[in-house]
Design goal:
With 222 residues, the chain is of the alpha/beta class. It has 2 domains: 117 residues, Response regulator (Rossmann fold); 97 residues, Orthogonal Bundle (Arc Repressor Mutant, subunit A), CATH 1.10.10.10. It is built from 8 helices and 12 strands. It has a 5-stranded parallel sheet with strand order 2-1-3-4-5, with helices on both faces. Helix 2 runs parallel beside helix 3 and helix 6 crosses helix 8. The longest helix is centred in the middle third of the chain and has 15 residues. 32% of the residues are buried.
């Protein structure tokens, strides 16, 4: 049973999420602010933290830094702040995922399980060819050099990593990334971001070896 720390100051959200996540088999502890969360982290072991940006005391960004630095567990931001600044800041601080409110509870569970799968056992580093993704620092490097991925490019890469070897349709990719873009991501925008990501991670973007096109179906990370 995975143990989750939910840091949120809205009592209704805490009650509803705690009940739902518990019914899905998770153990949930909650805190309304930064100081209470740090006390819980010091006394109990957690597998993942769900953080809101706006808290009763402190803020989610500062707490994310402390969680990553002192405890090394994955962090998912769960917030109404859907602007690009908040998204980019969250990923720069090492967040493993970012879900904008309102969200579907089932999607949250899938994201939690996906992050836990990715971080279990393998540690913070994921290797894809000569690309290394550090999920604690929220950055990707190729041959030791920072790829400087945008928040949406990084999220897209995480989606492929979480589904490595599986064919993802364009619809599935759009579903996974639209909520961090600040607005709906259309099909043309997805094409642009896949091209940008390939330009950064592939040795030869014209003949991609990592993110491959499966004709008539979608894309697959090999």
């Amino acid at each position: 049973m995975a143990s989750i720390l939910l840091v949120e100051d809205d009592r209704n959200i805490v009650a509803n999420l705690t009940a739902f996540l518990t019914s899905e088999g998770f153990k949930v502890e909650s805190a309304s602010g930064q100081s209470a969360a740090l006390k819980l982290l010091a006394s109990e072991a957690f597998d993942l933290a769900l953080l809101d940006v706006s808290l009763a005391d402190g803020n989610g960004f500062a707490l994310c830094s402390a969680v990553k630095r002192e405890h090394g567990i994955p962090v998912i931001f769960l917030t109404a702040s859907g602007d690009e600044y908040s998204t980019v800041t969250g990923f720069e601080l090492g967040a493993d995922d970012y879900i904008a409110k309102p969200f579907r509870p089932r999607e949250l569970v899938l994201r939690i399980k996906s992050v836990l799968r990715r971080t279990a056992g393998a540690g913070a580093l994921v290797h894809i060819g000569n690309v290394t993704v550090d999920t604690v620092k929220g950055m990707a490097c190729k041959n030791g050099r920072d790829l400087c991925l945008s928040a949406l490019e990084y999220r897209l890469l995480l989606v492929f990593i979480n589904n490595r070897g599986a064919v993802l349709t364009r619809g599935q990719l759009l579903e996974s990334i639209w909520d961090i873009a600040g607005e709906f991501v259309n099909d043309n925008t997805l094409t642009v971001y896949i091209k940008r990501l390939r330009d950064k991670i592939e040795d030869d973007p014209q003949s991609p070896m990592l993110i491959k096109t499966v004709r008539g179906m979608g894309y697959r990370l090999d």
